[in-house]
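FAQ: What does the model actually see?

It sees only this:
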Amino acid sequence: MKIQGIDHVEFCVGDLNRSAAQLCDAFGFGVHGRGGPETGQAGERSLLLRQGRSQLLLRSGLTAEHPAAAYVSRHGDGVAAVGFSTDDVGAAFAAAVAGGAAAVAGPSFATRNGTRVGTATVAGFGDVVHRFIERSGPADEFAPGLIDMIEPRPAAGESTLEAIDHLAVCLPAGDLASTVRLYQNAFGLSEIFDERIEVGGQAMVSKVVQDSAAKVTFTLIEPDLSRNPGQIDEFLESHGGPGVQHVAFRTADITGAIAALSGRGVEFLTAPAGYYRSLESRLGAVAIPVATLQEFNVLADSDRWGQMFQIFALSTHERRTFFFELIERRGALTFGSKNIKALYEALEEQRAAMFAADS
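And it is asked to produce this:
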């Protein structure tokens, strides 16, 4: 089986227009397609958003019984499906099922305006499914017969986000090893990174799985129950089980992207106290001046191929679970050994501030 990248990420949301407005007005996405009962989507409304090579499908149920509404009731707004591009949807589906993934929907095809789109769906983790997508033909169609393509609504300012870099997933303690095996056996990904992270009295274990072309990457995280409960435990409780904690967008200019998104109202987490004092002694020469990184609260790290720069957007989720990340890669293909800890220290500072405000 050959996965060629992430085709799209599907969100189930309670308020379709509000969610689309945030992603378009603040993050710079444009609306490219619409769906609803009139296009064959019974009981729901949907919007297709695009920016760079990223496609986000937003779905909202019109009744409480609709699967999208039921998802939101269980988890709040969040990622319900991750679509994988493939050149043979039937073979991908068969290989995934043979590798241990539970079948949800077998291969089916739809054609319109010269485009043929094949889909098949298998279970992933929790309530998140994976959809294989096979596309052929010249027309700009997403889901023929379900999504009507429209003249794109202009995005808010210049495009700054190039593609989906990775997704981070929170898992219950004890599920990490079996989930890694599922992604290896069913989807052909490889484990490329393994780290135990301690933040205060809590600890977590992180493993990263990735395809051979580095186009599909999942950071899988479980809490260490031998330590104090922390932010991963809190996610699992608030979300109602395992799920996607954040989606990271790749950008070619992280400080420019932060400036653009901040100007549209996006707030970002601040770096942990004292982070920049030892940065150059740890990394050596840094591609972006340390003073600039500190000004924008950007974290820096490296692997054997190059450097990477990361920042978390402040979560606006009603359950304080999901959020977005920005990442710029200057040669780096994987993840460094320090940034994950620093990123979660920044989250812990936000978490502590929120608890203080609520008390």
